Amino acid sequence: MTQTLLPPSSTPEWVLCPGCRTPHYGKRWAANLHVCPECGRHDTLSAPQRLAQLLDAGYEPLPQPSPAVDPLSFVDSRPYPERIGQARARTGLDEAVQCARGRVHGAPAIVAVMDFGFLGGSLGSVAGDRIVAVAETALAERIPLVLVTASGGARMQEGALSLMQMARTSEAMARLDEAGVLTVSVITDPTYGGVAASFATLSDVIVAEPGARLGFAGRRVIEQTVRKKLPSEFQTAEFL
Question: Which of 112, 181, 185, 193 is the S-S candidate for 203 at Cβ 3.0 to 4.6 Å?
């Protein structure tokens, strides 16, 4: 299935910075790449917005594995297919990972971008398939791979199938490493769980947006486990 990525969503006339609460003219906000001129906070971006910012004009979506059916017939307060349908309607995307081929300042690149708005950027089997697929493309063509991460971790509705994606994506990154193909991770806020424990932290170069949180377990879980109060900057890019 070839996914047609939606154009970046329009910016409102005025934007209130979530960090310092300073109002900004929307066009100025967009021109500054959704970074607050006052406090430097990097705002959350959708996958289409991220691709448009990162890649030169004229990039093209890559063929991507089709969305899977409900593998476990999982139901919590709502059936899993219903949650998927709502996420698709809300974001206009078919999954939490979107992939494209393009250029970054003229240099060719294969890019996979995670969208936290789609079920928290959770790592389900289709998302794992897409990371593996772009890694295989980068390996076959010997083109650098750029991964932009944003995730709360495993997709619990897929159980062990979700957990398996850590091993699959890690193995794909290992093959790129052995072949000497450059890989770059761009850590955005937040990047947690199975994504942090696998491909997000296995690249040759890891860069992060200011203040981006990166870790395996959440702050509250760790504090309850070690029975200590953690520093306020714990798990931020600067602390790490």
Answer: 185
